[in-house]
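# nightly structure sweep
# worker-07 picked up a monomer target from the shared queue
# config: single-sequence mode, recycle default, output format = structure tokens
# input follows
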Amino acid sequence: MTINRCHHHGFTVSDLDRSVAFYRDLLGLELVRISPRRNLPEYDHILGYENVALTVGLLRHPADEFLLELIQYENPQGTTRDLQNAFVGASHLAFEVSDVQQIYDKLIAAGFGAINPPIDIERDGSVVARAVYALDPDGISIELFQEFGDVVNS
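# output follows
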């Protein structure tokens, strides 16, 4: 048995329309579909709740097979938890971009935050990347990463 590929990454969000707008309009992902999921016994079984009611927004980058799944729970009601990066179970999604500063400026102008401004990443005296952790509408960390060299092997 082997894993074939990563199919999608999911985030639970408080307002699906607001989150879809963020990822679509500001980061350039394409909306595949929005679909309600209600009264489906398999969801009760998979998720471990009774009478699950949720709405799923599915997005993808036009040049990638990877999918981003945004889920707004209605039953059970979604609740907020601390999302600090050092907390066990915290998650982030990293997007490779062509210009970190440009996207950072666009997000800040649209009223979204970041942990700190972009910074250069150095390995062995050379700048290999520029990165920033931006925050989506629910405060979920989204890494924006501009690669200049071979970061994986640096």
